[in-house]
Write a structure and sequence with these properties.
The protein contains eight helices and three strands.
Length: 173
Amino acid sequence: MTLTITTFLKDSTMYSSYDISKKILQLAEREGEKIDPMKLLKLVYIIHGWHLGFTGKPLISDTVQAWKYGPVIPGLYHTIKRFGTSPVDFQLIDLYAEKELDNETAEFVETIWKAYHKMTGIELSARTHMEGTVWQKTYTGDLNVVMTNEAIEEHYKGLIEESKQRQKAKASV
């Protein structure tokens, strides 16, 4: 997967995980898709990670923790776990959302959404468990272990650099 994001996010505002979730659910609705809790949690984390990688600034104000099944945003998790494997209800997320995304942020979220939306929650979770990920380096089996924004940023900057190197290699062939 190659992401090309060059002009996004000159002024970066932090949002709640519910604000980002609301946008994801709007995008899913537009595509006729339903999003279960695992997929929503992983998408919010991945979008936050790419944002950190590209801008050096957090997208969400929430803390991310390393749990058994990958990165989790605890407040969001406890709100949506009631849905189990069923789709998350937009109305519930809308109740918790604090503000609308600015146009640049909405466009950024949509760009990352397009790269990942066809994946299931299980597939997204597997990506967050891969060798060298922040979760893999952080998870100890203990509860409430925070995955720092600095570590997430470093990981996603590494992914961006790898992508640039692959693009250079392709261009020179």
